[in-house]
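The authors assume throughout that readers already know how a fold can be written as C-alpha cells. What matters is that the chain and its backbone geometry are given together, residue for residue. A single example would do more here than another paragraph of explanation. For illustration, here is how one protein appears when written out as sequence plus C-alpha cells.
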Amino acid sequence: MPRNCIRETSAKENEIFLWKMDPPNKERRSPENGPSSARPCCSSLKMFLVALSFAYFAKALSGSYMKSTITQLERRFDIPSYLIGVIDGSFEIGNLLVIAFVSYFGAKLHRPKIIAIGCLLMSLGTFLIALPHFIIGRYKFETSIRSSVNSTSDLSPCPVRSSVLAAGPSTSSVPSSGCEHESMLSMWIYVFLGNILRGIGETPVQPLGISYIDDYALEENAAFYIGCVQTISVIGPVFGYLLGSVCAKIYVDIGFVNMESISITPGDARWVGAWWLGYLIAGLITLLSAVPFWFLPKSLPLPERRLAKYSPERTSFIKDSPLLEHKYQADEPANFLEMAKDFLPTLRSLLGNPVYFLYLCITIIQFNSLIGMVTYKPKYIEQHYGQSASKANFLMGVINIPAVALGMFSGGVIMKKFKLSIMGAAKFALGTSLLGYFLSLFFFAMGCENASVAGITRSYTGMESLYKVDSSLLASCNADCQCPETNWDPVCGENGLTYFSPCLAGCRTSHGSGIDTVFEECSCVAVGNHTASAGQCNNRDSCHRVFPYFLALSVITSFIISLGGTPGYMLLIRCIRPQLKSLALGFHTLTTRTLAGIPAPIYFGAVIDTTCLKWGQKKCGGRGACRIYNTTAYRIAYLGLTLGLRTASFFLCILGLVVLRRHVRRQEHNTLANGGTAAGELQALRKEENNSCNSDQCPQTADYGPERETRL
C-alpha cells in the first residue's frame, strides 16, 4: 500500500508541475479553437522582439546623437571638456538611481509596461535637453571684426594704440549686456537634468527586455535573438551620428539670422550647429517606441520543445525555484515586503559567484576604456586630423558603427553555429579582444603635426617651434596695436601661418564681408602682398594622407573587438543561476555605468583639457572652451589612456579563465554525481513497484507511460 501511494503521488506531482510550467490558455484549451498552442506564443514573442528592437534603436539613436554633439555643446555653452564629461555621465547617474530596484522588482511585475513607461521618460528627457535653445539668446561667437560684416568699406582691425587708449579699456575686458542674467543660471544645467531623466527612462529596457527573451525563447534561439537585438542597438548609432552630421552643418540659429552675415564655416572652431534639432527628432522617435509595449502580455507560455528538453535534475530545480515558479504563474500578485526582504540575501548570493564577480571587474575596466574612447572619438577626429564636426560624425555613422554592428551579429551567428560552451565563449571573446588590442597599437604611429599658429605652436617668423600654454601673443610686429588676446578669430597669412586674429597679424586694412573678408598691410606677414584671408590655414598635408589609413584600421579593430560582444554577453547570462538572471543583468548594468559610464567621460575630458594650448574666454569673463590643442599630446593622452585600461583588464581575464575552468569542471562533476544518484534511485523505485505490481497491488492508470516518467 505505501508503494502504491508513492507512485500515485509522484504522478500527481508531475501533473501539477506540468500545469505550473505551462499555465492553461483559455483560447488554446477551448474546443472551439482546437489545439493551437505554439502560434500565440511565437507571435507574441516576435512582437516583443520587434518592439524591443525599436526601443533599442531609439535609445541608441538618442545616446549616440548626444555624443555627436559634445563639441557643439562645448562651444555653445563655452565649457571645458571635463564638464561635457559630467553632462555625458549624467545619463548613468539616472540609471544609478533606479536600476537595482527596476531590475529586481520589475522582473516580478509587468515587464513590457515598465519598459513602456521608461520609453516615455526617455522621450521627456530628450525634449528637455533641447529646451535651452528656446530660452537662451542668439549665439554670438568671438570675433574682432564684427563691424566689417556686410560692409565693403576699408576698416582697420588694428587701431593705433593712442586711439585705443583714448577710447578706454579693451572691449574684451568689459562685460557685455545681459551678462548678469546669464551668470545667474547656466543653461547647460537643463541638458544635465534632461540626460539624467533619459538615464532613468532607459533603465528597464535592457535587463527586463533581455531576461524576457531568454525566459520564453528556445535555448538554441536565445543567443541569436539577443544578438539580433544587440545588432539593432548598434544600428541605432548609425542614424544617430548621421543625424548629428546633418545638424552640425546647419547653423545653430538657422531661420533667425541672416546667413550672409555669418563669417565662419562648419570647419571653424567657433561653429555651432543646430544641435537642438536632432534632440527634437530623437525625442519623437523614442516617444513612438513606447506604444507597442502597452499591448504585450505580462508573460508567455513556455515553449513545449524547451520544456521537453529539461532533464530530471533541471526540472526538479525549476520546480523548487520560487522566482521561476512565479514566472510561469505570472498572474499571482507579488508581495512587495517579501520581495524587499529577499533583496539583500539574493544580492549577496549573486556576488558570491566568483565567475560573475570577476566578469564584473573585467567589464568595468573595459567599459571605462570603451566609453571614454567612443565619447571623444569624434572630437579626436576633428582636432587631430582637422575634420569638421559634420564630417567626423558622418564617418562615425557610415564607416565605424556598421563595422561594430556586423561584428556583434557575426559573433551571435558564430556562437549559434558552433554551439560554443561557456568556456568556448570566454576564449572566443578574449581572443578577439587581444587581437583588436594589438592592432590598436598602430594608432600611435598615425600621428599628425600641430597646426602652425603664430605665437602658440610657431614663432612669428615661422621657423621656431613653440608650445606655449596661454602665453602672450604680442610680438614686435603687432606691438603698435592694442589687440585683445582672448578673441579667437583666426586668419591665414600668405606665408601659411595661422594668426590668432587679424589684429595680432598686424593687419591695417580690410575689405569684403563675411568669409570673403581680405586683410591687407599685415605687418606680421612678411611675404608677398602682406595679406591674410579669414579662417584657419589648411596646409596639414600629412594629416590628409594618413587619415584614410586611420579610418581603415579603425573599422578593422572595431569589427574584431565586436565579434566577442555577443559571446561575452551570453557568458554573463549562463554563468549564473536562472532565478538570479534579471538581478545579475541589472546589477551588471548598474556597476558598469556607475564605475565606468559616470567617471570615464569626466577623467578622459580632464586629461584632454591638459593638452589645450589656448583657451577661449566666456562672455562674462573666465575660461571658456579650448580653441587649440597640442595634437601630439592629445594623441598620446587619448590613445594611451584607452589602451592602458584595456591592458589592465587582460590580467583579470587570465584569472577569470582559470576560475571559470574550475567552475565548469565542478559543475560537470556535480551533474554526473547527481545524475548517477538519481538514476540509481529511479531504478530501485521501479524494481519495488514492479514487485508490488506482480502481487496485484498496483493497478495501471490509462495516462501512465514510461516515456512520460523518463521525461520528467
Observations:
- The chain has a mean pLDDT of 77.
- The chain is about 65% helix and 5% strand.
- The radius of gyration is 32 Å.
